[in-house]
Amino acid sequence: MSGITASSLEIGQVVAEAEFALSRDSLVRYAGASGDFNAIHYRDDVAQSVGLPGVLAHGMLTMGLAVQPVVDWIGDPGRVLDYQVRFTRPVPVDAAEGAIVNVTAKVGALEADVARIDLTVTFDGATVLGKAQVRVSVA
């Protein structure tokens, strides 16, 4: 975390940006690692039968990807004090095209030795995680 202090940050400052490409293979790997084998994450017919547009990325996979740029920026996952999101839209993962999830992390608030980093997480121009905030130690 060298060089990052509360005094080196400004409200509104972009501290990290990332783009994540998801494929159906990504979903299979995540299902194996997480144990979440819900068929909406790998079968279009099942997803569509419950009113979804098709196979969706796991919400927790999207959440995990979204915080990674902040962890990379801060340099130590132990400095993440709190992380919360609201799931606002699903991320459909097309069999051929996949899906691209974009993340922008900005300083939202500074309180002594803690920074609140606000995440904008989008797919296809629409926000998929609302009120996504990470509190990190900048002591």
Please tell me about this protein's structure.
A hairpin with a 2-residue loop joins β3 (99-111) and β4. It contains three helices and five strands. The chain is α+β, with helices and mostly antiparallel strands. The chain is elongated, with a radius of gyration of 16 Å. The chain is 24% helix and 37% strand.
Q: How do the strands and helices of this protein lay out in sequence?
A:
Elements: E1 14-22, H1 24-34, H2 44-49, H3 59-74, E2 80-87, E3 99-111, E4 114-123, E5 126-137
Antiparallel strand pairs: 1-3, 2-5, 3-4, 4-5
Strand percentage lies at: 35-45%
- Give the termini distance in whole angstroms: 10 Å
Largest sheet: spatial strand order? 1-3-4-5-2
The CATH class name reads Alpha Beta
Largest sheet: 5 strands, antiparallel
Q: List SSEs in N-to-C order.
A: EHHHEEEE
- The unreliable regions are none
Q: Number of helix segments?
A: 3
- Structural category: alpha+beta
Query: Considering the protein shown, what is the CATH homologous superfamily?
Result: Hotdog Thioesterase
Q: Round the Cα radius of gyration to an integer and report it.
A: 16 Å
What is the 3D form? elongated
CATH architecture: Roll
